[in-house]
Amino acid sequence: MPAFAHFVTGVAATTAAIAAMGGWQHFNPSPAMAKVDIIGIVSMQQKSLAAQMKPGMDEKSQAAIIESASRFGRQLDAALAQVASECACTIINAAAVIRDSPKAAMADYTERVKLLVSAK
Predict the structure, then answer these.
(1) Does residue 75 sit in the same domain as residue 114?
(2) Which of these, 2, 10, 35, 62, could form a disulfide with 94 (CB 3.0-4.6 Å)?
(3) Is 32 helix (H, G, I), strand (E, B) or coil?
(4) What is the DSSP letter of 96?
């Protein structure tokens, strides 16, 4: 086979590979990602609950605070699910982000999650 035929075959194979990869990326894009400061939200709730705890509280008051903490956990989970659905993105904890790109910073939905948790 002459060298020109090898060259044409190589160019055709490379073009087909690039077209296949481009088509795959077009029809199967990588999921978008967003961050939420979950640790900050939970810490804020812990401080609030700790402020409600008093020495010598009766069991009924303690049970109410424990139920409040449990309800907060369910509300936080529901809020995260709703935000993930709204933005069609994967939510990660902001603590997992080492550094955002200055040109394309990851969207931060912490305030939206706080709003949803406090509204319920």
Answers:
(1) yes
(2) 35
(3) strand
(4) G
